[in-house]
Structure prediction request, 171 residues.
Amino acid sequence: MLLESYTTSYVRPPNPSAQHLRCFAALSADISAALPYLNTVLKGYEYLTEPPSLTLKLPGKLVTLHPREIAINIVKDEAEAEEILAWLQREINDVWERREEIQPSFACAARPRVLEILKLLPKTNCRRCGAPTCMVFAVEVGQGGKTPEQCPELDQQKREALQEYLGRFRF
Ligand code: SF4
Prediction:
């Protein structure tokens, strides 16, 4: 069994009219290695590798699995949170048990992050790509309208890193 237990805590959002809670569960084990398998089985909404996390979209809420923590952005009460966490514990232990028969998925359905793209660009705003700034170019790449090849200032290593990052998304 990978995940034996967790400890929950709750936070009420600062807005005084808020009726919901945020839930955090501290995990007894590091579940990083199980995340790509969970991404396959649970069809993750967003999967990130640095640092690793998997976000699931459940009706009316987002649930993010970190190596040592699960965060649920909206729950109506503790009973609802416990139900979700118990289900996730079963899923985590089940995929871990069956990992040899599951194809891990590193794909991410969410859009690429503009700042992640920008990090890999030269940030000289030289305009050789036709965009007025590297930020504008990063937005266009994130939307699939431009490709890393269109920045002539990008060195090979950064180009490959950017292609690898973009390869995780389904445009
Ligand atoms: S060519 Fe590259 S470095 Fe120059 S502005 Fe465009 S993205 Fe930035």
